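User: Sequence for PIR Superfamily Protein below. Tokens please.
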Amino acid sequence: MAQSIITYKTLYELDPSLKSEELFRFYNKFNNICNNEGDTDNGCIKDGIYDNVDATVKDFYKNTASNFKIINDSSSQYFHGMTSDSNKRCIYFKYWFYDEVITKKYNTTKVNNFFDWWTQTNQNVCANCECKLSKIRWDEIHNLKKMYDVILFYGKSDVMLSEKLEKLRDHKYCKYIKDSYITYNIFQSRCSGETNAYCKEINDYIKNNIDDVKLTDLQCNSEIKPIEINQEEQELINGVLSINPLKQTGQDEASSDKQGTLSHTVIGIFGTAFGLFLLLLILYKFTPFGLWISPRIRNYKRMWNKITRKDCESLLDKSVSQQIQSDNRRYNISYNVE
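Assistant: Structure tokens for PIR Superfamily Protein:
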């Protein structure tokens, strides 16, 4: 079934260039933390903290606990040759965790069960770890995954951001990235001044890595619809074209028929007005003028939307299942499960 979330595996299959990102190396290391039994420094925690964990999710619990501990261990050689930046490692880990929850199709109950276990266990795994994995809801995991997709692949610090966004316009997942940015834009406004775990993650990890100016102007080529002229526009155009151009008359005719001159003047003004309308219509529909002015119009709309946001907040509280059903009608990219 198609879903509103695109998994990491699907993203790099659609765009193989994403495999060159540092995240790809970390993601593979996270997946294999407990697979290399002969590696004494792989960091896999194998003690009794999983005794009461359901067998169907035990591997996920084991990988999560082991990865959480090792990203906070600066002395470990498991990530040798990779970034030692603790903030980046924490972001990569959180992204891996959220993507795994989505890929494995864990429901609300399984998410809540994990965090109940984690609340009791995390101090035994890493008591003073700088990176935190706090309890959040299932729908918040989905939202954060989408926001991380934006900053990890189109983040503010990327020196190639403008070039990447230009290429993104032609990608199948362009609208997904654009909608993910809109999700961030909505919730970062609601999270202003909030300190709950969900808002804290947006404010601490997402907000500073977003380039609002460039992402606001992002326009996907898949959204550019074929040029269509409706019946009303066609009638107006036909009306303008049917007006005969004014013929230059002689001096005698002009002086003998003032009424006719006035009529021609009115018709001329009328024709000029419709001609200007036709010119603007053609510029907007058939030339880059429309593409140039559209982002400016969207900026004004965005300012207006922020003013009226409170009137629309009730729409954000509908169930996640309804959001997914709505998204299903907009996306044709399948949900991939490893």
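The chain has two domains: 8-224, 231-288.
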